[in-house]
Amino acid sequence: MQYRKDLKSGNELSVLGLGCMRFPRGLGGRIDKEKTEQIIREAIEGGINYFDTAYVYPGSEVITGEILHKLRLRDKVYIASKLPHVACKKPEDFDRLFSEQLKRLKTDHIDYYLVHNIGEINSWERLRQLGIEQWVANKKAQGQIGQFGFSFHGARDGFMELLESYGWDFCQIQYNYGDENYQAGRAGLERAYEKGIPVIVMEPLLGGKLATGLPKKAVQLFEKANKARSNTEGKAHAQAGKAQGKEATPADRVHSNEGLPADKTSQKEATPAAWGLRWVWDQPEVTLLLSGMSSLEQLRENLDTAATAKPGMLSKNEHATIAQVIEIFRAADKVPCTGCHYCMPCAQGVNIPGCFASYNARHVNGLVAGMSSYVMSTAALRSGGGNNSGPSNCTQCGVCEKACPQHIEISRELTAVKKKMEPFWYKPVVALVRKFMS
Fold first, then answer.
1. Looking at the whole model, is its pTM more than 0.85?
2. Which residue among 81, 186, 291, 296 is buried most deeply as judged by most CB within 10 Å?
3. Whole-angstrom Cα distance, residue 312 to residue 2?
4. Cα separation of 254 and 234, whole Å?
5. Cα–Cα distance, 306 to 335 (Å, whole number)
6. Beta-carbon contacts of residue 226 (< 8 Å; ≥ 6 apart)
7. H or E element: which one contains 173?
């Protein structure tokens, strides 16, 4: 296992963190305790020391706490959990929810505590008015909270505002090669790094799509690159053997790493999942990434890949391969938007990149993923009502189209987005949810 330092706290964190949302489940949707215990035990034995859970992950905090307590391994890991800010209506709610989380986790402190799923500055300002800053300061002084941060799901501009609004200890963003410029994106990652804020990456495989959902042509590109790398390494081993006065045998090529980078993934073909994780780890701005491993097979593969996770681990040719895969991946999108934000800001407040990303997500990943993204991107649940950042606000002025480097007919595409993403039931459901939240 490789480790990177959290410069805010000095903690050495494993580059691979265990996402506790996708523990294996059995009949009835209950978490399979036996399988989960095996995953947790082997994860810690493999060097993973960062566990990420949340109040709203069904059963996750409870099972994580029970197993760590049973195995007496609580002190071997940093626990990260999250405050459901939409459930905080009054100052007392902070203590009520946090106390319940400590009880669930069978611990007296949470090492990394986040405001969960925050998407805009208004949500943070509401928490400030409830006194969250002083509450966090008190909890830190009492040793009940170590580091305080936020997990983000929203537009890039909102992320930039949040970074400047408070002295955050860390942040958590969605980031992968499939949507490099989505939400906070690369620009947000780099800005956080500039400010010295550790970045935890979630969804490094885009919910598994970059592991098992790639187009066939993309998978073939990875296979071709694997063979090219294997041939190169075989020749290097042969040359090393000759330099020692003997011909390298097939066994030498498998078992010897002398003179080569100690890359376990080079000894066997890297899977699409390994390629996706390595792309994230290649970047020095990333502190660690989270993987929701729901089987021992997934865990073991990721541990092998993490063993060589270092900045700059990808070669020039490997970057070129991923660039080709990205082109194929994006070709499946309904709208070829790269999220560059040249079209922003929109005078009418439309979150153009967010609308297109949600539209594409529905096409590629299904209804739930697309609609969830759309609600967040258009700020449909923001207090005050209305479709604050949705396509309905478009006046077809054409300014954005002149600025678009992809030459997308944005006005026309936004009309298609509205038709697909706002069926007859959309507004009544959003209104009902907004009423419940208020």
1. no
2. 291
3. 14
4. 9
5. 34
6. 269, 270
7. strand 170-174
Structure-token pair, residue 423: 């069926």
Higher pLDDT, 14 or 260: 14
pLDDT averaged over the chain?
87
Residue with tokens 């999942």: 273
The two structure tokens encoding residue 164: 């400047």
CB 213 within 8 A of CB 361: no
Provide the CA 272 distance to its chain's centre, in angstroms. 17
Neighbouring C-alpha atoms within 13 Å toward the C-beta of 33:
10
3-state SS of 283-296 is CCCCCEEEECCCCH
Confidence of residue 437 (pLDDT cuts 50, 70, 90): low
Tokens representing 385 are 């009502």
CA distance 108 to 101: 10
List C-alpha distances in Å: 340 to 185, 283, 356, 388.
10, 19, 12, 21
Give the C-alpha distances (Å, rounded to integers) separating 323 from 159, 178, 316: 26, 10, 11
Task: Look at residue 58 and give its three-state secondary structure.
Answer: coil
Residue 363 burial class via C-beta count within 10 angstroms: exposed 0-12, middle 13-18, buried 19 and up: middle
| Residue 100: both structure tokens together | 């319940």
Structure tokens at 34: 């036996």
What are the b/e assignments for 284-297, b being 16+ CB within 10 Å?
ebbbbbbbbbbeee
Strand partners, 12: 5
Q: Other CB atoms closer than 10 Å to residue 18's CB: what's the count?
A: 27
